Amino acid sequence: MRQARTFKVGKYLLPVGRPSIDLGRKSQPFWKILGEHGIFSTVIRVPITFPPEKFHGAMLSAMCVPDLKGSQGTFSYYSSEPGEADPYTGGVRIQVAPK
């Protein structure tokens, strides 16, 4: 995400206004090339597809889609090992009991 305007406070640059989302991909994706040749395609969970571009097809974006918190998402994992989640790695740890 890039900010249009910032102001400096000490060594920090603070954003002003709403953030914008930038598609980090620099090349032309194959589904866009297929669409230019009239071939409909469905693209599911390909990384770096957000924000989606218009093309002749359908897309379900995957990585780099911001969540409701404005972050890149929170992961969860299951463990039968006793203990607590590591506060440095984040995520949600779900304790399970083996049968």
Task: Provide structural commentary.
This protein has one domain. Helices cover 7% and strands 26% of the residues. It is built from one helix and six strands, in the order ββαββββ. The strands form three sheets. The chain has a two-stranded antiparallel ribbon with strand order 1-2. Strands 3-4 form a two-stranded parallel sheet. β1 and β2 form a beta hairpin. The relative contact order is 0.13.
- The secondary-structure class comes to mainly beta
> Poorly predicted ranges (pLDDT <50, ≥5 residues)?
none
Indicate the radius of gyration in whole angstroms: 20 Å
| Number of domain modules | 1
The largest sheet, given as strand count, sense and whether it forms a barrel, is: 2 strands, antiparallel
Principal-axes shape call: flat
Number of continuous helical runs: 1
Mean pLDDT: 82
User: Quaternary arrangement of the chains shown?
Assistant: single chain
Tell me the total number of β-strands: 6
Element pattern in H and E: EEHEEEE
